[in-house]
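All the exercises in this workshop are built on plain-text protein records. Sequence and backbone structure share a record, each on its own labelled line. The question running through the whole workshop is how a given chain folds. The record below serves as our worked example for the rest of this section.
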Amino acid sequence: MHVNKGTSTMPAVSVAAGCCPASTPANEVVEDIFGLVRILSDGTVVRSPVGPVFCPTTFPENHPSVEWKEDVYDKAKNLVVRMYKPSPAGGKVPVLVHFHGGGFCIGSPSWANVHAFCLRLAADTGAVVLSAGYRLAPEHRLPAAVDDGAAFMRWLRAQSSASAKAAEADADAWLTEAADFGRVFVTGDSAGATIAHHLAVRAGVAVAADDAGEAGEQDQDQVTIRGYVLLLPFFGGVERTASEQAECPAGAGAGSLLSLDVLDRFWRVSLPAGATRDHPVANPFGPDSPDLGSVDFRPVLVVVAGLDLLRDRAVDYAERLAAMGKPVALAEFAGAAHGFFLHEPGSEATCELIRAVGRFVDSCVISASEAAA
């Protein structure tokens, strides 16, 4: 196996055929994430090509009422998007932009569990779902993933603009014939939910600046973001919460892969070198984080799992936004563990989660119609 030596700022990458090469005193494994990503002491990053055991091949690859395809939205970074649409769409339908989880270090739109969930999401909500990839740490430390999320939204705006100008050569007709760019929602799972939060903040700061007459020329596009859905958001902080201190809540069972050690490891290898878990990307209420009170938030749905170590942070996030007068709703699945809808995409709990997302989408669309009237 050929490996390249890393630098102090950008570890080298190698794909192992199987396990990581035998460690030597000069080149031992210093970080290991589920055997999928290993960092050696010389800075080399070894990624396994073998899919994770929690993505069984028994998950469905297709759905009878959903069409899907994959495309590259950023050729320079080789970032892909899997696009799903109801079949037949029956006219223009809402768009759900989705970012997968994985602690910013693992995960992909092509993983079987992410794919199966997006199939169900498109089928049961009747919406176009766009599952966007982003660069992963430690090769690309934060805020790279958030920047890629913003880049995907620019790609979506380009699609809408090209479609509005009937310049189909520059737009994907397969997407634009079904997508209602006036009803766009940004969703994310775990780390993807954290990306969604930061996109909401960036958009809200821009709107607030525009209202104050401080913004420059705005993009002339057809995309209107109606709301954000944060599914079990991956937030952090130096001070432990009660749910983190509980380590493994009773009843979480083997289905939950998240432990306090794993949480800390994700943050260690994804945050900028030397940063703590109070870094603004990790902690929305950290000492250097932006003041969310001044942000013009679109409606936000925060979904939490009762047996999740991250539960308390997500609840605190929702409660603080509500106290600021922001349009936020909280939905809790008391007996569920982190990632429950990925481990069992066909379960009743997953069905209810998707119904909750559908109700949120409908409520935002109705509210927007009433405001326009």
